[in-house]
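Sorry, explain these tokens?

***
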Amino acid sequence: MNGKRVLMVDDDPQNLDFLSMLLERHGWAFDAAENGHAAIRKLESGPFDLVISDLMMPGMNGIELLDAVKERWPATEVVIVTAHGSIPTAIEAIKKGAYSYLLRPFEPDEVALMIKKIFEVQGVRQENLALKEELARLSGPVTIVTRSPKMRRIFEIIESVAPANATALVTGESGVGKELIARAIHRQSQRAEGPFIKVSCAALPEQLLESELFGHERGSFTGAVAQRKGRFELADKGTLFLDEIGEISPAVQVKLLRAIQEREFERVGGTQTLRTDTRIVAATNKSLAEEVKKGTFREDLYYRLNVIALEIPPLRDRKEDIAPLVYHFIEKYRREVNKEVTAASAEALVALSAYDWPGNIRELQNVIERAVVLTRDTEIGLDDLPDNIRPARTVVAVPSPAAPAGDDTLPPLREAKAAWEKSYLEKALMRHKGNISRTAETIELARKNLQEKIKQYGIDPSAFAGGE
């Protein structure tokens, strides 16, 4: 509860002396005002967490001061001090927003207990606000969908290291899901009940980033009209995710190194040293080792961040994840747009699997969102995909059943589907040299079902033993 500030308001110096001794004994910072108008001026000059005000004062009484505080500083709690005869007025003050009231003469221990309770409630309230703020910023899926052995190995590492407090560095191309990995570390750690706070380092200029990380005092720069807590304070007992860490300036790198190494910092424009219990997870799409060689990133900071290194492979290197991700995003967006889209056609999945996805999962997510919005069917087809994905990238063309020369009559749909499916299975078997188990795994079909289709279409797997 260090850092909490109390403003005492009373026109009797003896009462102020008594309260000041009590506050000093418990280590709470405080200031005093002799009347309501003086209290307003004190509040305007700097934030206070609690106002303890006498009820009966000349000029502006305690109720009037309460009204002013709740209108202008709603987060500041107010306790009214009164005598026995003024209890009805004190109860009125509670109805107007006062936390409670104190009756004179009062016991010091009772006053201290009430103040501690107020600060505890404020701490919980502030933490909840930070969590709500973070939840409001979240977009996209929070579930990690994968079948990739590479990704499963990463999850095994996360499971092992998450309970520790070691700093982690997540690397990978833009769009591979680095933030989701950071959240997975947080959720499996002992800090899971604490806040997960994100800072996008690339989105802010140097001065604003420093203020965002460490907070600032009122008047520390133009526009700093009030004290503001930084992300290190808000992430106390939780996890601070520093996205695109490779973009921070050398000046901020120095202060960040100290905060990670010493677990202490000062707000911008402040002199008070604050401590933080925060786990750092950083992410970048750059090679920080290369940035160190160039001289743009501090070597000591790099080693502080790179305690646990997790490199996320691009989507083109784990294509087995494409189909499950497609269905994951279909489910997400069909609910959002209220459409009965439940699948992607086989042709569409082939095209999606053949594409290299330079934008990784983020690009795939955008493509499926667009397709769900555009399609007029219950499944996403080739025509619902962007031009750069659906041209001649389709591995298997739909063969037309033989027709007499000069006859352009379309075959029945069931025949066309059967012909396409047979050709698709033959192509898949050829790629795997007739190996039924590997073919079934690749096309995501149960081995038994594949064998039944092979029998249905009269396909001889041994004919493909030589491969393509």
Summary: The longest strand covers residues 77-82.
